[in-house]
Amino acid sequence: MGRPSKEEYYLGIARQISERSTCLRAKGGAIIVKDDQIVATGYNGAPRKTKSCLDRNECLRDKLNISHGTRYEMCRSVHAEQNAIINAARAGVSILGGDMYIYFRDRNGNNINSLPCFICKKMIINCGLKRVICSMRDENIKIFKVEDWVREWQEKDIIDDKHQYGTDLNINEKYLKQ
């Protein structure tokens, strides 16, 4: 076993942070790194001082039979990516030009494609991050340049995005394409 790459190192930290997640569907962790220093972290969880799905022992989205990757307004949790951005803002830390590392696993502990949802992608674009490094189901790593998302969305529409969160989790992927 050799020394892990920077991507493996930071994704390992994001994986550890995901253990704090209170989401019953997916345990997610995100970190923001700027100038080779961790400046913010976040995990899936209910807003501060509110009851989470873990506290309630119930996932509202499961109860309502909502597919992965859709209807986020019906979720009690704030996404890991959003929490990392929010935590940087709360601490007064600039993340402009930084990288975000994302790790997710499903309720059974299996790796899933750690792709940010459309809401998180829009936040990532607007906060000025440069790259997003995602762990993938097959234990590989996928690196995205945020400027590529912007260019793709300028040329096409957001719904044409090639890498959509949830498509590897839903039995009926056609639902996401409607």
What's this model, at a glance?
The protein is of the alpha+beta class and 178 residues long. It has helices spanning 6-18, 53-56, 60-63, 80-91, 118-127, 146-155, 174-177, and strands at residues 26-34, 37-43, 99-106, 131-135, 141-145.
Strand content: 15-25%
Overall pLDDT level: 88
Query: Strand order, biggest sheet?
Result: 2-1-3-4-5
* Largest β-sheet summary: 5 strands, mixed
Helix content: 25-40%
Structure summary, number of beta strands: 5
- Rounded radius of gyration (Å): 16 Å
Shape: globular
Low-confidence stretches: 170-178
N to C succession of SSEs: HEEHHHEHEEHH
Q: How far apart are the termini?
A: 46 Å
Summing up helix and strand content along with how strands pair, one would put the structural category as alpha+beta
Number of helices: 7
SSE order and pairing:
Blueprint: H1 6-18, E1 26-34, E2 37-43, H2 53-56, H3 60-63, H4 80-91, E3 99-106, H5 118-127, E4 131-135, E5 141-145, H6 146-155, H7 174-177
Parallel strand pairs: 3-4
Antiparallel strand pairs: 1-2, 1-3, 4-5
